[in-house]
Amino acid sequence: MFTCPVLCPAECCKFEGLEDMPVVLEDEIDVLTREARRIGARLHFTPAGEYNGVRLYRWIIRGACPFNRNGRCTIHEIKPLACKIFPLAVNLKTGDVYLSEKCLWVRLNGPRPLDEFPAEKEALKRLLVRLGALR
Q1: Is the dihedral angle over the CA atoms 11, 18, 66, 80 positive or is it negative?
Q2: What pLDDT score does 5 carry?
């Protein structure tokens, strides 16, 4: 079963290119903004289109996520679904689900069936329901 490795470099929480930055739902922006205010951080989002009428936004993160401290997420319980599904990734255009090579665990353990990612698979299901891609 998947679990973040001890002393993980948290590469999943570091961003360089726009295409790697998380896509969030409109209501997730409010939660993230509130938490950012609490720690004195400013967040930036840009529209990323719509999927089945649901507005999507790209969370612009230059470098490391402001909620990552020493390789651990400080907002784990309320982080956006895009973060909760990691290391799973989904291509909304094709419906393909794949494992991100950005994840140290995936690089160390190789490809695995989705059943080895129960919490991430459940978060993916919630995301797809929210997007109207799954009932």
Answers
A1: negative
A2: 85
**Overall average pLDDT of the 82-87 stretch:** 97
Residue type, 87: P
Provide the token pair at 93.
Answer: 């255009």
Specify whether the CB–CB gap between 113 and 1 falls below 8 A. Answer: no
- What SS3 state is found at 97? strand
Residue ranges covered by each domain of the chain: 11-130
- Residue pair 22/83 in contact (Cβ under 8 Å)? The answer is yes
For the entire predicted model, the pTM comes to 0.92
- At residue 115, φ and ψ (nearest 5 deg) are -65, -15
- 27: tokens are 């209501």
Buried b / exposed e over 75-88, threshold 16 CB at 10 Å, is beeebbbbbbbbbb
